[in-house]
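To fix ideas, we reproduce below a protein record of this kind.
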Amino acid sequence: MKEQVIRIQIHAPAKPLPGEPCNGCGICCLLETCPAGRIRFLQISGACPALIWRPSDSRYVCGLLQTPGIFFRWLPKRWESAARCLMRHWIATDIGCDCTAVAVETAPESTLLADESRHQITAIQGPGLGKDLLNVTTHRPE
């Protein structure tokens, strides 16, 4: 199993089960860069630079999907709708959650983020992270 620690907003929704609709938890995008992000940012691993936290909605959104013109400055405004359609396909928004990571308890003082029986997602608020960020340890099959 591969282990990674990610920083995530404390108010982010709990990760949905695989196949359930995306709810903006951000875990998949914090773990690795999607195919569209790999092309745009020339990076394979690490959090996607286009991941945007929306405090008003308490969820993460994909900047490549929501505002492609910001990340592809050369893109004519009239092509933004087509770019959104392409991004939707590349990040597989219609198939539901495909992230196999499971966040696990990292310390006894962890704060439960989701219903333990359903999601088993826990996290610890770390020193120096700020009041709205958590460190979450994730495990994924390799």
